[in-house]
Write the structure tokens for this entry.
Amino acid sequence: MAHEETAKPGAGARLLIRNIGLLLSGDLRQPILDADTVLVKDGKIAAIGREKDVDTEGAARVIDANGTTLAPGLIDSHVHPVAGDWTPRQNQIGWIDSCLHGGVTTMISAGEVHMPGRPKDVVGLKAMAITAQRAFAALRPSGVKVLAGAPVIEHGMVEEDFRSLAEAGVRLLGEVGLGSVKDGPTARQMVAWARKHGMQSTIHTGGPSIPGSSLIDKDVVLAADADVIGHVNGGHTALPDGQIRSLCEESTRALEIVHNGNERAALFTLRTASELKQLHRIILGTDAPAGSGVQPLGIIRVIAALSSVGEIPTEVAFCFATGNTARMRNLDSGLIEVGRAADFVFMDAAQHSAGKTLLESVRLGDLPGIGMVVIDGEIRSERSRNTPPATRLPKIVK
Ligand SMILES: [Zn+2]
């Protein structure tokens, strides 16, 4: 388990990535870019183009992508972290490092709900949210950006609580519905206060996830109007199809599909969103750690499922876990665009996949082989210890 302080590459450090076989942008409007070279400066994308058109001089580090596919690092929109790289949910250490090996470079907390003895009084829950925000801002397990500090709202909170949380640096609300607030009007009021003070919100959708949690149906979800309709496919128990359809039709908020949810409901959501031309609202999460454990490959498994069984082009399915989430969540990563964070995953078709290319193999339902993960321009892992082996691997030239 690698616990590391936030990495700060040297000023002006340049990373050159050349010989990219396929460049996925993360942008639904143009998911494939016509380029084979990416230049990184100070951890940000500085240039994208053909090698002959990019200023390749003076790079401190050079990676030959060796014809592999480069995509933005994957974003898990729904995790439940607690402390560093340990989760008490299944008493596991190193789960975030395992997810890095699944291509995940950013995780967003939907509440630190597994904290043993989690405080539910207002002072206590605020203190815990601020502590989680500070702790994960100061320490990135294996370099992964964990955006945490997501308080679960409880009855008795007033606008001043949201103002003071925001002032202290808390930018998220944990899943509405996991605390005592389960009714539409109270949730709506608190979500509005959070929004007014610059905090983003998410809501639990569907049946209770574990003993002690409850049903949140479409009426509560619509009334609350949180920014993210958390696990629209249930976590695990999904709402009836008619209710999921209402959420697609009557709301404009993000439709989050999670690995630890109902697969049939995930496909129903995908088809409904596609029919309504609302694919830009689809974002992906694992909802891990949870009762069903930790899924290091959860995000690429959902991408492969939506692409193959859901019959969505692979390059589009990758946008769900990258650019869509980045836009919905106002992140500086998730897109291959000049000025964005240099968070990348290198992939190729897994060895012996029936698909000849990365896109074809995932479309057939195979997981890609991950060859390298880069965060803020720093190489964080090389050949994945968790995916099937990739046919080709990127090489570090210098
Ligand atoms: Zn939930």
